Amino acid sequence: MAGSTHTVTNQAPPLVGHDVFTGDRVLTAAVERHLAPELREEALAELSGLGRSCGSLQSREWAVQADAGPPVLRTHDRYGHRVDEVDFHPAWHRLLGKGVAAGLTAAWTRPGGHVRRAAGFLMWNQVDAGTCCPLSMTHAAVPALRTDPELAAEWEPRLTSQVYDRGLRPARLKAGALFGMAMTEKQGGSDVRANTTSARPLAEDGTYTLTGHKWFCSAPMSDGFLVLARAPGGLTCFLVPRVLADGTRNVFLLQRLKDKLGNRSNASAEVEFDGTWARRVGEEGRGVPTIIDMVAATRLDCVLGSAGLMRQAVAQAVHHCEYREAFGAKLADQPLMRNVLADLAVESEAATTLGLRLAAAQDAAEAGDERERALLRLAVPAAKYWVTKRCAPLVVEAAECLGGNGYVEESGMPRLVRESPLNSVW
Ligand SMILES: Cc1cc2nc3c(=O)[nH]c(=O)nc-3n(C[C@H](O)[C@H](O)[C@H](O)COP(=O)(O)OP(=O)(O)OC[C@H]3O[C@@H](n4cnc5c(N)ncnc54)[C@H](O)[C@@H]3O)c2cc1C
Q: For atom 31 of ligand 1, which residue has the closest CA?
């Protein structure tokens, strides 16, 4: 009989069916430390529910399916009309729906919202980094939109809603909406002052048309985008909806999707604007100061995202070494391996602690604490640099703890390795 020559021994069982939140003592302690006592009980229960979902076999399977079935660009319908849509795997929609329902875009509307969301976002990165991209950008768009109270009144309730209402329709018909950002152009990403996309005023009401391109535009099926373009008064921030108020499609010409190193579940597009309708956000010439609030929020998410990848890699490494025996002892009991695992755990725990501390500073700053706001200005870029830079070597080292098994896709480690350099580029 095939396979009857041996019995399978000394293999670790899969790490599923556990609570990713309560199983992470450092994360749990950080949430307890930073939340006001009256918020704790409810927040801990909610996060534990999300932790069970993150550790479930179902979520893990969806993440594998979404990664194995990458998005497909559909530029035209069968009759030749331009549609510029991207078809995602059904598992992508399930994951994104779970992330939205878990409040991962709702930080700005709840007391202690940033700490609660940071813990959730860190856990969600352990499931699927792809859906974390639109969840992060939607969360981050809120402070930039708040520079314009009219726009904030229109969009904020949908961006912070816990309903994933998929499909391109006018915003007023949707119970929830997602946002992306488009700054990077072919000739420059870090130096956005090199942007050449132009904005021509349509009327005195802050509406314009845009002409130009963006070289990276992730999550292109989002409902709206914050875009930088050059108006007569200089570089300016704009809101570009995918669907106009009358239900017709805005001009949003998806040229192609990037073939990327990291996750395959999300799409990053190249897009052309050709007379694209846009609404100004903030003053003309103040594009960078307006969008910088969004950039700052995504920077903190880079810290939390990398901390999540690190945590998942270390959890897998420790789990494997607790079961696997070599040279007469569990790997976790071999002195040199203990040393490696301890180093990995310390660094991962430090990243979690730092990310949650910064989220607490964000909550305090929202409540008017200027000292904490000043801390954020200094500490978020420094933390972003350090944690995202350390992510890749740590994840590679953790994968090595699984030996050859860690090099095989089924282990999930290659997916973490491929994702690990992303946040330092972003
Ligand atoms: C998966 C993915 C998704 C993305 N999604 C989006 C998106 O949705 N929207 C969007 O707008 N952009 C997006 N980007 C683009 C991303 O923001 C840019 O790639 C990033 O800002 C860097 O810009 P660049 O690629 O033009 O590199 P460059 O700006 O050319 O930088 C190249 C290198 O030079 C370094 N460098 C730059 N300036 C200096 C300096 N003064 N001194 C020393 N070194 C310097 C950089 O750190 C980098 O290492 C995405 C990128 C990736 C990889």
A: 190
**Alpha-carbon span 239 to 263, nearest angstrom:** 27
Residue 260 Cβ inside 6 Å of ligand 1? The answer reads yes
The CATH code belonging to domain 174-287 is: 2.40.110.20
Query: Taking a C-beta distance cutoff of 8 angstroms, is the pair 267, 178 a contact?
Result: no
Q: For the chain, how many residues are written?
A: 426
The CA distance from 197 to 80, in Å, is 27
3-class state of residue 84 by DSSP: strand
Which residue's alpha carbon is at the smallest distance from atom 37 of ligand 1?
Answer: 190
Distance of CA 347 from the midpoint of ligand 1 (Å): 26
Q: How far is CA 334 from CA 12, 312, 322, 342, 346, in A?
A: 16, 22, 10, 12, 18
Say how many Å lie between the first and final Cα of the chain, rounded.
Answer: 53
Residue 82: per-residue pLDDT: 95
Tokens 């939109």 found at: 145
pLDDT tens, position by position, 349-403: 999 999 999 999 999 999 999 999 999 999 999 999 999 999 999 999 999 999 9
Cα separation, 116 vs 359, in Å, equals: 9
If pLDDT is split at 50, 70 and 90, which confidence band does 1 have? low
DSSP 149-175: HHHHHHHHHHHS-S----S---GGG-S
- Give distance in angstroms: CA of 39 to centre of ligand 1: 39
Above 80 in pLDDT, residue 261? yes
Pick from 184, 227, 260 the residue to mutate for probing ligand 1's pocket: most ligand atoms within 8 Å of its CB. 184
Is the CB of 225 within 6 Å of ligand 1? no
* CA of 185, closest atom in ligand 1: 26
Rg of the chain in Å (alpha carbons): 22
Q: What is the spatial distance between Cα 367 and Cα 373, in angstroms, rounded to a whole number?
A: 10
Residue 259 in this model has a pLDDT that exceeds 80: yes
Centre of ligand 1 from the C-alpha of residue 99, in Å: 26
Q: What angle do CA 336, 23, 25 make, to 5 degrees?
A: 80
Is residue 215's pLDDT more than 90?
A: yes
User: For residue range 73-127, what is the model confidence (pLDDT) as tens digits?
Assistant: 999 999 999 999 999 999 999 999 999 999 999 999 999 999 999 999 999 999 9
Cα 189 to middle of ligand 1, angstroms: 4
Indicate the SS3 state at residue 78. Answer: coil
User: ∠ at Cα 244 (179, 248), nearest 5°?
Assistant: 125
Beta carbon of 381 within 6 Å of any ligand 1 atom: no
